[in-house]
Design brief:
By secondary structure, the protein is an alpha/beta fold. Helix content is 39%, strand content 17%.
């Protein structure tokens, strides 16, 4: 396309590539409406929590963070409302390891939940990805959506003023997922994420412990959450978003 006729919005859509990568809720807003599949990544800790809970055949309902209406919402869907980190259950992967099978849990979070809600508004098929299920997510998409437009979103974290803080743990997990696709179909943004994964692949646990997000959790007393989140490809579970909750795909037909 001639640069003189290219619209500004098109410039940021990575439109000439089938497999794309972007950051945060704004990235979801831009790419989800023109994508068949959106993968939400929030390694520390929302999507890791989703993987752990859904692996126990539980339903996970994302919800707005610090919203008092969450109590009534949880009651309306007969679900447990996650509490502050340190309680059980909470936005802590370790706290969900003992979650009773087939539970229903409302899991508010400032990043992963928000991005999920935004993606759902576009009607894109939405998946929760993390390091634990990275290759399983890639395989699922390649089997069920070959040749479709895929957008992988690293949610990132937030600075105290609410602005997006890019988080390398999300970049690495995105790169792990993207590394399994035909590299010729990847946007330059997606290829950079793959490069981050290749750089980190053999030392992910150390990198997550030493990165800003990992150090923050460790200093708050949650080192086990960082360890759980740093495990690469230990799960075949692919949580998909359906009727307001993340669930295992095979449960959709029950």
């Amino acid at each position: 396309m001639d640069n003189n006729t290219c619209h500004n919005d098109d410039v940021f859509n990575q439109g000439q590539y089938y497999v794309r990568f972007e950051w945060g809720a704004e990235g979801v807003k831009r790419l989800a409406p023109i994508s068949s599949v959106v993968v939400i990544i929030d390694v520390l800790s929302f999507t890791t929590c989703v993987e752990v809970a859904v692996s126990r055949e539980s339903l996970v309902y994302p919800y707005r963070y610090k919203d008092e209406s969450a109590i009534k919402f949880a009651q309306s869907v007969s679900a447990i409302l996650a509490e502050k980190r340190g309680k059980t259950p909470s936005l802590s992967p370790e706290s969900l390891l003992s979650l009773p099978p087939q539970s229903r849990i409302v899991l508010p979070s400032p990043n992963g939940s928000t991005c999920t809600v935004v993606a759902n508004e576009s009607n894109a098929f939405t998946i929760a990805g993390c390091l634990r299920n990275a290759f399983a997510v890639s395989d699922f998409i390649k089997r069920h959506y070959p040749g479709d437009v895929i957008s992988v979103i690293a949610c990132g974290e937030q600075w105290e003023n609410g602005m997006l803080r890019p988080a390398i743990e999300d970049l690495i997990a995105a790169g792990a997922i993207l590394s399994q696709f035909d590299q010729s179909s990847l946007s330059p943004e997606a290829k950079i994420a793959v490069s981050a994964f290749i750089h980190a692949e053999h030392d992910i646990k150390t990198i997550l412990k030493e990165c800003s997000s990992g150090r923050e959790l460790i200093e708050k007393g949650f080192p086990e959450d960082v360890i759980i989140a740093s495990e690469l490809n230990v799960s075949q579970v692919v949580p998909v978003f359906h009727n307001g909750a993340y669930v295992q795909p095979f449960l959709l037909n029950r």
